[in-house]
């Protein structure tokens, strides 16, 4: 049996209706003649937040059919980012990919995403901002505005073109270097790009178009958007705090120098005035 070199992590909550088509499509794509990745070297890990919707039974049935898939059911934790971190920590492969369970990240792109990872390319990102890609096709206007706005707010933090897509991969060695990961954040890819300090030359990008959600409901809520803004604030401080402190000290020094200059100037005038009397 081949060793596992690749792990596909799928955070899920009440996504049972999507698990079977997701897993079968992933392995079907990997089994194509032109696939750059051997399907026998790939595992799929479903990280489920105690949905109790039949997901466990679906995964067990898929395993009996020969698919290398397993499920981790979390009973005390919740949240997409922490689910991804849990999956990455338990992954057997040195090359790890995260994708949504709702089929909006088309499984047919998995082989190309996995193959893009290498010792020189520590991070791979599925991007919607490439030539010929229909950005957020089929989304309502408000979702497009939110998506574009969120991306623009993240631009000063990373050179990656689309850190908001959620379809990304990372090398295990790079992931283990991350410190102070925000498991409560909305976008774990952005957190990893910043906290792992991944340079632009180590990022590979694979153009893709969003698919259409097949089952379940969108997880985008006002609370989620607020958490994203909180995450951005934390990341800006993490990335630029040194510059902020330096700028504050520089302003303080300039203030002191200006104050001394003014005092000396007034003191000199006083001295001259006193010498006249």
UniProtKB/TrEMBL annotation:
Domain of life: Eukaryota
Annotated compartments: Endomembrane system; Endoplasmic reticulum
GO annotation (BP), single: dolichol-linked oligosaccharide biosynthetic process
Cofactor: Ca(2+); Mn(2+); Mg(2+)
UniProt-listed Enzyme Commission number(s): 2.4.1.83
Biological pathway: Protein modification; protein glycosylation
Catalytic reaction list: a di-trans,poly-cis-dolichyl phosphate + GDP-alpha-D-mannose = a di-trans,poly-cis-dolichyl beta-D-mannosyl phosphate + GDP
GO molecular function term, any single one: dolichyl-phosphate beta-D-mannosyltransferase activity
Enzyme class: transferase
Keyword annotations of the record: Endoplasmic reticulum, Glycosyltransferase, Magnesium, Manganese, Membrane, Metal-binding, Transferase, Transmembrane, Transmembrane helix
Complex formation: Component of the dolichol-phosphate mannose (DPM) synthase complex.
Stated family: Belongs to the glycosyltransferase 2 family.
Protein name: Dolichol-phosphate mannosyltransferase subunit 1
Organism: Pycnoporus cinnabarinus (Cinnabar-red polypore)
């Amino acid at each position: 049996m081949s060793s596992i070199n690749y792990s596909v992590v799928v955070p899920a909550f009440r996504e049972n209706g999507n698990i079977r088509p997701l897993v079968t499509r992933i392995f079907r794509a990997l089994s194509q003649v032109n696939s750059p990745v051997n399907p026998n070297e790939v595992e799929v890990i479903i990280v489920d937040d105690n949905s109790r919707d039949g997901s466990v039974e679906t995964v067990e049935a898929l395993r009996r059919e020969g698919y290398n898939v397993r499920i981790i059911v979390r009973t005390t934790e919740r949240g997409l980012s922490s689910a991804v971190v849990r999956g990455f920590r338990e992954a057997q492969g040195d090359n790890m990919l995260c994708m949504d369970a709702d089929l909006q990240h088309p499984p047919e792109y998995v082989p190309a995403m996995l193959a893009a990872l290498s010792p020189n390319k520590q991070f791979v990102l599925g991007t919607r901002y490439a030539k010929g890609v229909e950005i957020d096709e089929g989304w309502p206007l408000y979702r497009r505005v939110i998506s574009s706005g969120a991306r623009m707010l993240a631009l000063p933090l990373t050179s990656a073109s689309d850190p908001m897509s959620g379809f990304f991969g990372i090398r295990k060695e790079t992931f283990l270097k991350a410190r102070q990961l925000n498991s409560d954040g909305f976008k774990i890819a952005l957190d990893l790009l910043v906290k792992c300090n991944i340079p632009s030359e180590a990022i590979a990008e694979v153009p893709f178009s969003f698919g259409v959600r097949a089952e379940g409901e969108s997880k985008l809520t006002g609370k989620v958007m607020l958490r994203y803004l909180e995450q951005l604030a934390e990341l800006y401080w993490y990335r630029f705090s040194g510059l902020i402190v330096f700028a504050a000290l520089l302003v303080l020094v300039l203030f002191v120098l200006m104050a001394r200059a003014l005092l000396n100037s007034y003191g000199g005038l006083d001295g001259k005035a006193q010498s006249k009397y």
